[in-house]
């Protein structure tokens, strides 16, 4: 087997990669065809089959690990694809730009790699044929003579030869794909940027320094610097041989993971070193800055503020001289430097922050551990006509001016328009506000119907042109429009302080949206109101819009929980959602629950849950899909006859409370939504949830709070 070499740079250890049994080399054209066929046939019959055993696979894995240990020292990137049939050689930018396969380059380095090749091929034979390790070894002519020379085959040319191509060309960007391939790869020369490669190594302990980088290929193979797929020397494309054994695939993936883990560990180590270096640089810079500042004369009276400081000290504070460290501290502070001052009691610390603020612009924030000390300093400053205030735990909280209210939404659109028109013409007459809706269609319809009642309202949504949106906005700012009917796109970032009301025609899609939208009202600290209309049917209409979002249903169910709650402070629910701490007393009766508390009762709704499960089981048997409103109808003994369950007793609840029960069971997982597409939109249907079986089997009970007035006696 003739080999060709190319030496690049000065380097150290030699790493090898081996594949399957050697590919047959074509004899010179002068050999008779019959002799060639006969010889080829004989060699094929004498060739030992390659047997993959767990031991050989493990040895192959060990070779890969040995190579990975030397990964960062070579100047070549060599990738062995899955299976042993192909490989790609990619030189790093710091190594070489081209590789020329020629007999001249081979002859220059034959003596250097001969001995290594002998050892390498012996190891390769043991790996590929461990069961025949005692068999006759290949002749020396196949791996090099006693001087380590690798003779070229008869008729070989310094230039690469292609089968079927009479032209001889030197290809500097080709590919390696001979079935046997042998890579002797040593690290890049000192000072060069090392590349990476994924090939197999023989023994890391055999690596020696002072070697050049040699890449040995079977004659007729192609070398690639482009990273494309490998092909044979005759132009035949070589494809990866699929792994027949899943265990081999698992092992290969495991090796890839180990390689990535090594890279991650190295990057983490480099990051730690960079962080340590950064800290040292910061410390050095701070030390340098501290030394520079310490060298300045902070006790000088030649600063631009020195004259004013002395006059204010005498006239306002009645002090003729300063104590030690006071003047340097005030000069450094007025210079914009950070200062730490340690003085004993009575050392004059307060003057160091009181006097500078009087002669400069802005304000000073003082953090003090004692309320008594704060009060004493505030009184002393106010006696000198210095504006000063204090904030402590006993300071009255800011007055809440926005009233939050949840109302049941009227059953029909006409009733809803009537109620909105009455609010705008009576309670909010002459006041400015916003009415939010969930869709462009609803926005347009509300605007049209309210205008038909003589109300001056504008329509604002994303489908309007920029000019139309700007015109609507300006009319609202100038109070030409009493209210704007808008989607969630309106109001964000607008500064109109006199908004007296925000009305949500439907529930918001999330608590975050609701909080932002309701926050448009009462920015001038004058009384304002936020009204949220909730209707059971809107829950399923909006859920069909948001269920495809990652947290769409979760966010929507948070709003539903806010709406169906029977007694808790509205502000406390919002604060709890955002993981804040707020007590109901902070509300100051500025929500419907705190101002008009209801008497609620903890009701066992286990039987109601079981009855709803029976309705759903009956619908499933009848191949009927059930929407939320239809589920409540069937539970009350109304609606479609094929959804009613014979002998099922209607619950002693008002319909509004029945809808709250279904909503609660949906939030708690006893029911769930299923979404099916139609030609025009997606529809939400209700199914039994993952918690339903535990209730039907009697293993679990369910309770919830309901207003007593909602219970039918």
Polypeptide structure, described:
The chain has 713 residues and is α/β, with parallel strands linked by helices. The chain has three domains: 3-242, no CATH class; 402-595, 3-Layer(aba) Sandwich (Rossmann fold), CATH 3.40.50; 600-710, Winged helix-like DNA-binding domain superfamily/Winged helix DNA-binding domain (Arc Repressor Mutant, subunit A), CATH 1.10.10. It has 21 helices and 18 strands. The strands form seven sheets. A six-stranded parallel β-sheet has the order 9-14-13-10-12-11. Helix 2 (54-69) runs parallel beside helix 5 and helix 15 runs antiparallel to helix 20 (655-667). The radius of gyration is 42 Å and the shape is extended. The model is unreliable at 1-31, 72-113 and 127-243 (pLDDT under 50).
Short description:
This protein has helices spanning 33-46, 54-69, 103-128, 140-143, 246-294, 306-315, 326-334, 349-358, 371-383, 413-427, 440-451, 466-477, 511-518, 536-546, 552-564, 570-577, 592-595, 606-621, 628-635, 655-667, 692-696; strands at residues 3-4, 7-10, 15-17, 76-80, 87-91, 183-185, 212-214, 217-218, 402-408, 432-436, 457-460, 483-486, 499-504, 528-534, 600-604, 671-677, 682-688, 703-707.
């Amino acid at each position: 087997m003739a080999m060709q070499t190319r030496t690049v740079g000065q380097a150290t250890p030699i790493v090898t990669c081996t594949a399957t049994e050697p590919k047959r080399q074509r004899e010179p054209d002068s050999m008779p065809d019959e002799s060639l066929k006969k010889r080829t046939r004989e060699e094929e019959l004498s060739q030992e089959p390659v047997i993959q055993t767990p031991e050989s696979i493990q040895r192959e894995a060990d070779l890969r690990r040995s190579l990975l240990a030397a990964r960062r020292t070579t100047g070549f990137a060599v990738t062995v694809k899955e299976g042993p049939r192909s490989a790609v050689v990619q030189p790093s930018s710091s190594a070489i730009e081209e590789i020329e396969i020629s007999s001249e380059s081979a002859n220059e380095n034959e003596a250097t790699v001969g001995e290594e090749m002998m050892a390498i091929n012996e190891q390769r034979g043991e790996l590929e044929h461990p069961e025949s390790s005692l068999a006759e070894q290949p002749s020396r002519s196949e791996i090099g003579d006693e001087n380590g020379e690798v003779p070229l085959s008869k008729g070989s040319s310094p230039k690469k030869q292609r089968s079927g191509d009479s032209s001889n060309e030197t290809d500097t960007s080709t590919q390696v794909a001979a079935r046997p391939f042998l890579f002797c790869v040593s690290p890049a020369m000192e000072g060069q940027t090392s590349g990476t490669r994924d090939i197999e190594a023989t023994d890391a302990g055999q690596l020696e320094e002072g070697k050049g980088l040699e890449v040995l290929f079977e004659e007729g193979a192609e070398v690639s610097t482009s990273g494309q797929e490998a092909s044979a020397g005759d132009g035949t494309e070589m494809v990866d041989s699929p792994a027949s054994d899943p265990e081999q695939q698992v092992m290969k993936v495991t090796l890839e993971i180990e390689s990535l883990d090594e890279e991650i560990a190295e990057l983490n180590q480099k990051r730690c070193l960079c962080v340590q270096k950064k800290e040292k640089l910061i410390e050095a810079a701070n030390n340098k800055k501290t030394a520079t500042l310490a060298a300045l004369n902070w006790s000088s009276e030649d600063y631009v503020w020195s004259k004013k400081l002395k006059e204010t000290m005498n006239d306002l504070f009645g002090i003729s001289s300063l104590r030690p460290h006071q003047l340097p501290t005030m000069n450094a502070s007025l210079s914009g430097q950070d200062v730490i001052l340690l003085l004993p009691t009575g050392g004059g610390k307060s003057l160091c922050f009181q006097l500078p603020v009087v002669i400069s612009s802005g304000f000073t924030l003082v953090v003090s551990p004692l309320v008594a000390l704060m009060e004493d300093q505030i009184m002393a400053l106010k006696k000198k006509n210095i504006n000063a205030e204090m904030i402590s735990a006993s300071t009255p909280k800011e007055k809440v001016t926005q009233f939050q209210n949840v109302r049941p939404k009227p059953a029909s659109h006409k009733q809803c328009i009537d109620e909105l028109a009455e609010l705008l013409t009576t309670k909010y007459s002459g006041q400015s506000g916003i009415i939010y809706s969930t869709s462009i269609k609803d926005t347009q319809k509300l605007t049209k119907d309210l205008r038909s009642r003589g109300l001056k309202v504008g329509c604002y949504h994303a489908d309007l042109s920029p000019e139309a949106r700007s015109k609507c906005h300006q009319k609202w700012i100038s109070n030409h429009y009493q209210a704007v009917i808008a989607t969630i796109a309106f109001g964000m970032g607008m500064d109109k302080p006199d908004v007296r009301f925000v009305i949500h025609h439907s529930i918001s899609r999330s608590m975050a949206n609701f909080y932002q939208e309701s926050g448009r009202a009462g920015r001038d600290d004058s009384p304002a109101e936020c009204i949220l209309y909730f209707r059971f049917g809107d829950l399923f209409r909006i859920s069909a819009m948001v269920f495809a979002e990652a947290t769409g249903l979760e966010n929507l169910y948070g709003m539903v929980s806010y709406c169906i709650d029977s007694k808790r402070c509205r502000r406390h629910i919002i604060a709890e959602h955002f993981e804040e701490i707020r007590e109901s007393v902070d509300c100051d009766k500025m929500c419907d629950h705190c101002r008009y508390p209801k008497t609620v009762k903890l009701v066992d709704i286990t039987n109601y849950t079981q009855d709803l499960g029976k309705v759903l089981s009956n619908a499933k048997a009848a191949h009927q899909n059930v929407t939320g409103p239809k589920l409540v109808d069937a539970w009350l003994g109304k609606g479609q006859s094929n959804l009613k369950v014979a002998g099922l007793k209607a619950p002693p609840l008002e319909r509004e409370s029945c809808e709250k029960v279904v909503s609660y069971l949906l939030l708690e997982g006893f029911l769930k939504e299923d979404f099916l597409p139609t030609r025009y939109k997606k529809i939400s249907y209700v199914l039994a949830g993952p918690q339903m079986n535990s209730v039907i089997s009697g293993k679990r009970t369910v309770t919830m709070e309901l207003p007593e007035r909602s219970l039918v006696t």
